[in-house]
Amino acid sequence: MADPFAWDEALLRRYDTSGPRYASYPTALSFRDDFSAQDYQAALARSNGGGKSLSLYIHIPFCRQPCSYCACNTIMTQDTRLAEPYISRLDREMVLVKPYLDTRREVAQLHWGGGTPTFFSLDQMSDLIDRLDARFGLSGARDRDYAIEIDPREADVFTLRHLQALGFNRLSLGVQDLDPKVQSAVNRIQPRILTEVLIDEADRLGFRSLNLDLIYGLPFQTRDSFADTLKQVIAMAPARLSIFNYAHLPNRFRPQQHIREEDLPGAEEKLAILRTTIAMLTEAGYIHIGMDHFARPNDSLALAQQQNTLQRNFQGYSSHAECDLVGLGVSAISRIDDVYAQNPISLDAYESALDASRLPTARGIRLTFDDQVRRYAIERLMCDMALDLDRLGEVFAIDAPRYLANALARLEQPERDGLITRQGNHLVATPMGRLLIRHLAMAFDDRLPRHKGPHYSRIL
């Protein structure tokens, strides 16, 4: 198994600092508490003029049991009765959003995340889909992208058949690791057969795309143990793989306090796991989209990257760039027009706002012109692994090299170190630079100095 490119471990270590994942720019740390529901309503109304298709994200926070690595906004409960009032609140939120949106706009993308969306019963899933369709009008187009995150421990072949009937055409299965020792250490016992059965059924039913989530850097993982997991996963032939870097932040995420730091792989071993992962997946025919995403060449993510239409949002990489994103549910974030708006992360606060017939907007930000320029630069670099300054200048009617002179100066050392090349006004990340794309993107972030500290995970 040969490395797909020259590997410089010393260079990676030098640039392996902490930094944002850039699911948005400005990042959530810049969201303001004085951003109001009225600000969000105005952005919704403005968005109608652009006529973009809609993307709906539904956050379902419930999980039946905690996974020790979790860094998501979740509520642990065995009581499925909690789902009913939550669905009613989601419907109330839809009712409050709808007057400000032209609902003739196609819902081209739908994503249910969490938490564990399969916490809902089949009837509850049907109820929620019916409400979404009644409020927004769901799409039946072949190129729609309707995805749901699934815990294989809580789903079976009947679940998949029901999801297909509801209109979902893409699945994301949480796997994390197939090693029983690692599974035990993170409180997620999940025999391989559970995942295989669902993959086989999804293939039989003709789901357009299937993603598997893995995590590297978990307790007791080694390069050899993770290679064994990868070998088994490659044999399952998913269209996409998300291989996340575990960020151990127990002071921020309470479940992680159950993980002992001494059980985690050291920095050298973790880099070796990453190196093994890239080599094995490249050899198996996957394209490294960027950061933690891999896809087969014919998958929509890979095709979108080729066409420079890939987008990055709070669900990762998306092939639907030209959409306004409406987030529904506790902690959900919307990206509408020139605004980000976030709902409360507390279920009580979310419910209280809706019970008072108020949109549950807790905080957000309206982007300045400078924010929009830098968001464009960061997003294109993160998605295309390249940045065309001439194109950026055309979009914003500016002299891009002069406007972004401070960012280009910050990239001079990475350029000398072989992480990025510049030919005229065209920047391209090298293979090593692609691994450190977050660091390269940080050069364009003028808000970053305000948030230095333990807020961000390490890049690798």
From TrEMBL:
Its EC number is 1.3.98.3. Pathway: Porphyrin-containing compound metabolism; protoporphyrin-IX biosynthesis; protoporphyrinogen-IX from coproporphyrinogen-III (AdoMet route): step 1/1. [4Fe-4S] cluster binds at residues 63, 67, 70. GO terms for biological process: protoporphyrinogen IX biosynthetic process. It catalyses: coproporphyrinogen III + 2 S-adenosyl-L-methionine = protoporphyrinogen IX + 2 5'-deoxyadenosine + 2 L-methionine + 2 CO2. Binds 1 [4Fe-4S] cluster. The cluster is coordinated with 3 cysteines and an exchangeable S-adenosyl-L-methionine. It comes from the Bacteria. S-adenosyl-L-methionine 1 binds at residues 57, 114, 149, 333. One of its GO terms (molecular function) is coproporphyrinogen dehydrogenase activity. The keyword Transferase does not apply. SUPFAM superfamilies: Radical SAM enzymes. Its main location: cytoplasm. Its cofactor is [4Fe-4S] cluster. It is found in: Cytoplasm. Pfam families: HemN_C (PF06969), Radical_SAM (PF04055). Residues 48-284 form the Radical SAM core domain. Keywords: 4Fe-4S, Cytoplasm, Iron, Iron-sulfur, Metal-binding, Oxidoreductase, Porphyrin biosynthesis, S-adenosyl-L-methionine. Belongs to the anaerobic coproporphyrinogen-III oxidase family. NCBIfam families: hemN. This is Coproporphyrinogen-III oxidase. It comes from Billgrantia endophytica.
